Amino acid sequence: MKSYLSAIKPEDKPVIIAALFVLAILCVGTVYTLATQGSAPLLSPNYLLQQLQTGSFLGIVAAGMMVVILLGHIDLSIPWTLTAAAMMATTVGGDMALPAGIAVGLAVGLVNGLGVAWLRIPSMIFTLGVDSVMRGLMVAHTGGFAPQDRATPLMRFLAADKVLGIPVAIYVWAAVSIAITVLLTRTAFGRAVYATGNREGAAYLSGIRTRLVIIGAFMTSGTCAAIAGVLLAGYSAKAYQGMGTAYLLPAIAAVVLGGTRILGGQGRYIGTLVGVILIVLLNSVLSIAQMPEAGRQVIYGAVIVVMLLVYGRTARITS
Questions:
Q1: CATH topology of domain 2-318
Q2: What percent of the chain has pLDDT over 90?
Q3: What pTM did the predictor assign?
């Protein structure tokens, strides 16, 4: 066992472990549904595509979150960045709906980046404050009620329609995934993100403009949150208060479960992708089992803890 584990590259171990957990969840879910319902919806292509369609919103948020975590920072403004982008897109409407929503994400990301990079305020504190500010602005914008505006036809198409039998939202998720992968592996910015995450002081002394790297990372996170918000509004046909709240902790969990080091400098996007699929399938199995919310939270947290413990033991065994 030890020789087998030592043959695996360290950066591949979290991906393999996450993939094994995905297979375990599929097996457990299939056995349970066959025993209780006489069918196995988890093995149905249509059901899996539906789960990936709803999981695409989380996947896009997690893609942006990963870039920030690679720096050793965190973006807690995701919930109301997503919500504000959705609300402004539906408010503006027409051909400018998507640009308006994405502009919100870019603006929030820029503010976050400036606060963390130039003012040197810890990202956890600053982004949490920005999230609170965005919530106040949106409550003032809507008067505390649900917006009356509806999603545009383009937003509905991107989130709810299908092309060649595959939901368009999955195509959008794939496009974002490719963009993030290329950004991190094929560009000077991506190399600077890893260098800054490993040791910001050394990266600065080597000539990397670390402040601009931090700003770029937060703007990437804000943009991804905005894209997810626009899609979610299209899927729901409208924007609503607190629509982004459910995506913060799962996005962080997907990134960490995929092997991205929470202190920065280490991680691969394929791991985040597998982490998102793991969380989506876990939630799906718990929904099929009609698990009460309290039980869902216990099982959800237990799977995350067990997986991290398994990864930690594997790292110690092979070190």
A1: ABC transporter involved in vitamin B12 uptake, BtuC (1.10.3470)
A2: 55
A3: 0.90
